[in-house]
Automatic annotation (TrEMBL):
Primary role: Catalyzes the attachment of glutamate to tRNA(Glu) in a two-step reaction: glutamate is first activated by ATP to form Glu-AMP and then transferred to the acceptor end of tRNA(Glu).
One GO MF term: tRNA binding
Residue intervals of the Glutamyl/glutaminyl-tRNA synthetase class Ib catalytic domain: 4-346
Alphabetically ordered keywords of this record: Aminoacyl-tRNA synthetase, ATP-binding, Cytoplasm, Ligase, Nucleotide-binding, Protein biosynthesis
Name the UniProt record assigns to this protein: Glutamate--tRNA ligase
Gene name, Swiss-Prot/TrEMBL: gltX
Subcellular location, record wording: Cytoplasm
Source species taxonomy: Bacteria, Pseudomonadati, Bacteroidota, Flavobacteriia, Flavobacteriales
Length: 507
RNA sequence: GGUCCCUUCGUCUAUCGGUUAGGACGCCAGGUUUUCAUCCUGGUAAGGGGGGUUCGAUUCCCCCAGGGACUACCA
């Protein structure tokens, strides 16, 4: 029996979760569930300067809305808690010390200013400053001074960081589930800071320590982390720990132009990049970024579309429920190349799920909009459900419902110009006749009205278009919308006749 | 600049050496519909370039080009 699958999503709370992060979380979730494993959420807030209030809650709420909430996290099954790195602060120093003692790390006293200067000077000469084997003994480190001297400087309160002592002259062949064999020369790597002068670990140290302590079996993360895989593997080795398996996901790219989709893209591209609406409290004007939820996307849409960005099951199926995804997901079928986000196809997915929703739920979602227009009391829910069932095939979002159904609530205020051309000289007389036909119908239901009206037309040899077009124009104000007799039944005999009369006088 | 990753229709993708290179979104046309939408039918459109390996390459290898990521005491 192989060991239990435990995967994590480990965002830092520097703002709202963006769509690429959501995809990473989703793939972790799918992989965990597929393998009867555990999906946990860890908050990586080792950089106190970048902490954004509300971001942590936002992340949790987003995952919950999408239906991919973690099995373990802050306040939930805290088997390996705390799940927030700032609360694990006391843990990391001892591991940094362990690396110092084993000769895998060293103290460095260089100031940020000194390093900046080095970088600038190198740049001016067209060279790149890399803090590693070739210069670490020329810099201000514990490698070149005595242990006593080092201890003294630290005791004096001098600022220092702890850097990893990258091994020399090695070619690393690393295995990535998605990319296969990836090669790195250790001589080209730099000695990353593991422990900062503010007493906090960097991402690299905290991440490895926590993944080990939390018994992470697989690290599934974005491709932007691929360059730090050698460092991470080397760290596991230095600690003598078994490393988890790695899988680096392809990036989600902007739909137009180049580059990866980023938080800064906000609403500029005409679609949300965040699952939930987010108000930037730090901005002067309290900038609001739209969210999928508020825009009327269903969680199923977001899940389905994101799952297919970089993965497919090898068949031609495109509509998947979360359960199906769990069943079929396979990391080995994840793509290597980045994928451009296609807002059009995303909308198509939402239409698919909109049509699938049951009418009662849609009516419930539509009701507040109707109420806002001032029709709350005049309508019972069953009628609203009926309306929704008639129009949903024409919509991508619930927010489009009103424009597609306003004529159910209120008579047209104007008539579509182009359509009015169908209003000919003989039309008023015909409409007058239609009124009297309608007036005599007692069973005022769609099918019955249709039968009677069509009978009347055939008996009098009146062409369909001559009646139906003006009839629709009178009720709807344009040549669009659901089956006409369904509209007639819903608005009722009296209203129908009134609207025809109004059309006769107006047109 | 350096390191690493990637490369099939406009976009998302299938193809595990031999296919008329398939599907979906979009777009166009036709049909259904009194109308719009849905739906159905059809069409549009692709293996970056150059070398190899092979009887045969989209598929395997190399080079180039292009794109991307990373290159902080940020994650």
């Amino acid at each position: 029996m192989s060991k239990q699958v435990r995967v994590r999503f480990a965002p830092s709370p520097t703002g709202p979760l963006h769509i690429g992060g959501v995809r990473t979380a989703l793939f972790n979730y799918l992989f965990a569930k597929k393998n009867n494993g555990v999906f946990f959420l860890r908050i990586e807030d080792t950089d106190q300067n970048r902490f954004v209030p509300g971001a942590e809650e936002y992340i949790m709420e987003s995952l919950e809305w999408l239906g991919i909430a973690p099995d373990e996290t802050i306040g939930k099954n805290e088997k390996f808690g705390p799940y927030k790195q700032s609360e694990r602060k006391h843990l990391y120093k001892q591991y940094a010390d362990e690396l110092i003692n084993s000769g895998n790390a060293y103290y460095a006293f260089d100031t940020a200013e000194a390093l900046d200067l080095h970088r600038k000077q190198h740049e001016e000469q067209g060279k790149t400053f890399i803090y590693n084997w070739h210069n670490r003994e020329k810099l201000d480190t514990s490698l070149v001074i005595s242990a006593e001297e080092t201890a003294k400087r630290i005791a004096n309160g001098e600022d220092y960081v702890i850097r990893f002592k990258t091994p020399v002259d090695e070619t690393l062949h690393l295995q990535d589930i998605i990319r296969g064999d990836v090669k790195f020369e250790t001589n080209l790597l730099d000695d990353k800071v593991l422990f900062k002068s503010d007493g906090m670990p960097t991402y690299h140290l905290a991440n490895i320590v926590d993944d080990h302590l939390m018994e992470t079996s697989h690290v599934i993360r974005g491709e932007e982390w691929l360059p730090s895989m050698p460092l991470h593997i080397l760290l596991y080795r230095a600690f003598g720990w078994e490393a988890p398996e790695f899988a680096h996901l392809p990036l989600i790219l902007k739909p137009v132009g180049n580059g990866k989709l980023s938080k800064r893209d906000g609403d500029k591209l005409g679609f949300p990049v965040f699952p939930l609406e987010w108000t930037d409290a730090s901005s002067i004007d309290k900038t609001v970024s739209s969210g999928y939820r508020e825009k009327g996307f269903f969680p199923e849409t977001v899940i389905n579309f994101l799952a297919l960005l970089g993965w497919n099951d090898g068949t031609e199926q495109e509509l998947f429920s979360l359960e199906e995804l769990v069943q079929k997901f396979d990391l080995n079928r994840v793509h290597k190349a980045g994928a451009k986000f296609d807002p059009e196809k995303n909308k198509w997915f939402n239409h698919q799920y909109l049509v699938k929703q049951n009418d009662a739920d849609l009516a419930k979602a539509f009701a507040p909009i109707v109420a806002e227009k001032g029709f709350s009391t005049t309508l019972e829910m069953t009628k609203l459900e009926k309306i929704v069932s008639l129009i949903k095939e024409r919509a991508h979002f619930v927010s489009e419902f009103w424009d597609l159904s306003d004529f159910f609530f209120v008579a047209p205020k104007s008539y579509d110009e182009k359509a009015s051309k169908n209003w000919k000289e003989e039309t008023p007389a015909l409409m007058q006749e239609l009124i009297s036909v309608l007036g005599e119908i007692t069973d005022f239901t769609s099918l019955n009205i249709e039968t009677i009206v069509k009978d009347w037309m055939t008996k009098n040899e009146i062409g369909m278009g001559k009646v139906m077009q003006p009839f629709r124009l009178s009720l709807v104000g344009a040549l669009k919308g659901p089956h006409l007799f369904d509209i007639v039944e819903l608005i009722g005999k009296e209203e129908t006749i009134q609207r025809i009369e109004k059309a006769i006088t107006t047109l």
